[in-house]
Amino acid sequence: MPRFTLDGTVLRYDDLGPADGVAIVLIHGHPFNRTLWATQAEALAAAGYRVLTPDLRGYGESDVTPGQVLLSRFADDIAGLLDELGIDTAVVGGVSMGGQIAMEFHLRHPDRIHALVLSDTSAPAETPEGKLYRNRLALRLLAEGMGRYADEVIDKMLARYNVAALPEVAAHVLGMMQVTDPRGAAAALRGRAERPDYRDSLAAARVPALVVVGVDDVYTPVSDAEEIVKLMPDSVLRVIDGAGHLPSVEQPQAFNGVLLDFLRDRCPTG
């Protein structure tokens, strides 16, 4: 698996598709890893796009940075990956925390964005209650590990009905959560608690955006996606039926369809 080193931290990623294709970076959420995007990476590469799916620092097979990792650090890691590969601009997308990292990337590196893909995410800054919750959860994960937490949230990560209806998907999502290093998860939670408000930068965006959300997402409901679309001058909203917070794995064919339609229209390759 490809790897590169940034500030002494080894970061790993997958790189699929033709080297001269339009580059697409897909950023996983918490507490997952790059395999969340396996179905999308395969479909996009087959369509002629170059797809980069990194393991964020602290997740998957990348090194852990303990303590606190701000979303700005994650965004700069994505910029570092593009630098490593000699890529000037890319479509940058993510789900949940990954979507917020994509928004942070747009805030910090707007000239490197070709288009945005924002899945099941929200733009406002963290609330005081949210800060308290994330910092307490960080302490809990460090104390007891990921197992109980994963069991508690699986029917929120996926639509409740999909936990039983899609057992292989549920097993994959549980597995990603269970193997995440608690130190990495805690550091990201602490950093995410400090995230800024992205609404002004999204309102000023000059790139196209695809906003996707599962119809039964309980973490970031359809109303959050609608708010982003109202802010962004060149954006489209697609709601995925039969899905919760992770439509890319719950309904991959539907998700891939809207993603490919958007890319062919706004970012054609070849």
Automatic annotation (TrEMBL):
Keywords on record: Hydrolase
Pfam families in the cross-refs: Abhydrolase_1
Gene3D superfamilies membership: alpha/beta hydrolase
Domain called AB hydrolase-1: residue spans: 23-250
Domain of life: Bacteria
Designated name of the protein: Alpha/beta hydrolase
SUPFAM superfamilies: alpha/beta-Hydrolases
GO molecular function terms attached to this record: hydrolase activity
